[in-house]
Amino acid sequence: MKRHSSIYTQVLTLGLTLLGLTSHKVTFAESNKPLAMIYDPTTKKYFVGKNTRFTIKQGTESSLIDRIEVSVNGAEYQPYDGAIQFKQEGKHSLKFRAISPVNNWAPVQFTEVFVDLTAPSSKALFAESRYFKEDKTLYAAVNSTLRLQAQDNLSGVETIEYSFDGNNFSAYTAPILVEKSGAQVIFVRAVDRVGNVEEVNKIEFVADGTAPQSVMNINGQAKPSTIEGKNYLVTNDSVNFEIKATDPEVQIQSEKDPEVSVRGSSAVKNIWVKIDNQEPTPYQRPIFFLREGPHTLSYYAEDNVGNKEREKSMTIYTVSTPPRTVATTQGTIVNTGGVNFATRDFALKLEAKDNVVGLDRIEFRVDNEQDYRTYYEPIRFLESGLHKISYHAIDRAGNVEPSRTFSVFVQTTPPETTIETAQPLVNRDGLIYSPSPNILTFNVINKGVGVEKTLYSVNDGPMQNYDGPITITAKERLYKLTYKSIDKLGNEEKNRTVTYHMVGTSPVVDLFASDGQSSEEKVRTDFFERARAESSEEAPAAAPAQATPPPAALVEAPVAAPVQKRAPASVKPAAKKAPAKAKSRKK
Question: Phi and psi at residue 417, in whole multiples of 5°?
Fold first, then answer.
């Protein structure tokens, strides 16, 4: 659009040639405030403001004028009697003509104008994604720009002005750079081409120049380690990585109200994560690394005005395979019936094979212990009985091997050997009598580990292995037996000793007769069983009629037993089909 006068006064010269009238001029009268008339060459329209008035004056070269008539907005002509002003916005028309005293009429002159009574409207626009509004607070990023725009629907925008103090305005020519953080105020107004001035807009915002800060929380065990010359944070597949972020608050203090001061921030908009070589994605939930091997985790936080923190990164090595513990027994140990038996010199040594991240520790517990303890040296037991050892290995990534169990029965009690006889024994006055013959069997009581061997000796002879029942006879007047058993762990029983007095023949008694005066005479008798066998009809022998001397062959005088030397002890094993060991009974 083109402005016709810098002092907002427009003079129109109208050529009036009819009846000698030369010209008249229409003047836009000045007022206290500037007036304007704008011509838009595109639309070929004139625009005027609310203070514009139209006056019609006789031209300097005009002849005598009797009167001037005007028609406003197509109405009937009326005598012109002063300045014409339009009070309503929109299109208006003005016709006027002059008449001389001799009734000569000048040609009708005509003009159309658009009255613009509405001030333009302005607005401030921050760069896209660099501002954020929460409740009534507007946040903008430091180093972002503020663009001002204005719109006028009639005469058009002449200028946009801004001020930082509300008094001294400057013409807006380029985006305004936000250079400092904190609470700020910008005053903005627009002026259209006919002088309508917008009421000042007060734009308050908080400039946020601080990036948010993210924090990584590792839920589970993670340890730094060097693998193949590279540094990693070693974890297992149960560990998750949780990221949180906060946006530091800035001071919010109005320049117009310095006593009012609060703190706030534009808040966190997103946390971005990048796993290995993938594109960044918004963080949603804790991150697990299930695939064994090296990984890279990068992340950063962004607030609502586009401030981004510097990207953080870590290298992670996930290990899913736990180490494996090998248990080695030390000392004497025997497995009998699926049960491990051992002596007090038993020890269990634990070793673990490292995986790629290395062993952290071996843990164990024994018997009824609730908690595991760290293994340092082979495990031993001072008390006999059944013991249970549970153990597992843990690597530097926290992988725990499934617990293994080793059970052992520490046996310190030697076996107990007893003798079982085929015929009953008689204990009289502290002596043990055995009929002849008699069969002896060694029975061994043990705690389940089993008997390695039973040894015995006869009449202080050398010890020999017991391999089956023993027969003793009256060939020896007595038998002194020394015996013991040894179990498979080497627990040795103390020597036990027993002495048997052998009774080899039936007892012999004689019958004597006496009248009380003469000496006793031995009566000849017979064995009942033998006599009955010879003749069941023979009458019993009658006593002699008178005392006669018995036949010399039937009279036996007491005879002392001849003194004999004891022969070496001899044992006759009972007849058997195959050798047999001592019977073993579990207690």
Answer: -105, 135
pLDDT at residue 556 above 50?
Answer: no
Whole-number pLDDT of residue 61: 74
Q: Comparing C-alpha atoms, which of 326, 323, 293 is closest to residue 394?
A: 323
Whole-number Å distance between alpha carbons of 158 and 2: 11
For 529, the enclosing helix (H) or strand (E) is: helix 528-534
| In the block, residue with structure tokens 């993670």 | 222
- Collect all residues with Cβ–Cβ distance below 8 Å to 516 and sequence separation of at least 6: none
Residues in contact with 301: Cβ distance below 8 Å, sequence separation at least 6, in sequence order: 211, 212, 213, 214, 245, 247, 268, 270, 271, 272, 308, 309
CA atoms within 13 A on the CB side of 55: 13
Categorize the per-residue pLDDT at 128 as very low, low, confident or very high, splitting at 50, 70 and 90: confident
Selection from 391, 340, 341, 331 nearest residue 366 by Cα: 391
- Interval 199-212 mean pLDDT: 91
What are the structure tokens assigned to 431, written together? 């002596």
Rounded Cα gap, residues 50 and 119, in angstroms: 11
126-134 long-range contacts, Cβ below 8 Å, gap at least 24?
126/205, 129/305, 129/306, 130/305, 130/306, 131/205, 131/305, 132/266, 132/267, 132/269, 132/303, 132/304, 132/305, 134/264, 134/266, 134/267, 134/304
Report the chain's mean pLDDT, rounded to a whole number.
82
The predicted model scores a pTM of 0.55
- With a cut of 60, say whether residue 392 has pLDDT above it: yes
So what's the pLDDT on residue 155? 86
User: Is pLDDT at 41 greater than 80 in this prediction?
Assistant: yes
The least confident of 260-269, 327-336, 362-371, 384-393 is: 260-269
- What does the block give as tokens for 308? 């981004």
The DSSP letter of residue 143 is T
**In angstroms, rounded to a whole number, what is the distance separating the alpha carbons of residues 69 and 80?**
5
How much of the chain is helix, strand and coil, in % rounded to 5?
0, 50, 50
User: Helical H runs in 260-387?
Assistant: none
Question: From the CB of residue 491, how many other CB atoms can be counted at a distance below 10 Å?
Answer: 20
Phi and psi, residue 354, nearest 5° = -70, 150
Residue with tokens 């062993």: 359
How far apart, in Å, are the Cα atoms of 202 and each of 184, 185, 205, 257, 365? Answer: 10, 7, 10, 13, 75
Average pLDDT over residues 573-581: 46
